[in-house]
Amino acid sequence: xxxxxxxxxxxxxxxxxxxxxxxxxxxxxxxxxxxxxxxxxxxxxxxxxxxxxxxxxxxxxxxxxxxxxxxxxxxxxxxxxxxxxxxxxxxxxxxxxxxxxxxxxxxxxxxxxxxxxxxxxxxxxxxxxxxxxxxxxxxxxxxxxxxxxxxxxx
Length: 154
Known about the structure:
Layout (H helix, E strand, L loop, with lengths): L1 H45 L5 E5 L3 H14 L4 E2 L8 E4 L12 E3 L2 H6 L3 E8 L2 E6 L1 H6 L14
Parallel strand pairs: 1-2, 1-3, 3-4, 4-5
Antiparallel strand pairs: 5-6
């Protein structure tokens, strides 16, 4: 009887470890996919091959986690800690009105209310990536995107 419990315990632990690996693996794929979408948009927006990106957040922990994802998955953008050096800004969260005078992308619907230079928002809904770009803000910052973005422009 003990052998049966031991074998059953082994299979249950194997099953649980498989589930946790699968979940972590999916998270990595989602992160990689998210960063590749953001990276392509930034490069197409500033029309530079290796643009400098500044990450803005009022939550230092959240900012550091996102920077680590960028370092891990982005191949053609460079992080900068100097706002004046940035070609593009990624806004994680914002609670006060701010204008960067440079193109920015919000990753939070609340931030879009306060970010005056956000040309759009990128978010996940029901496990799917959503990109919305604002035509007036793109025009104001004189950003011309390739035709493949026309579906996302409002």
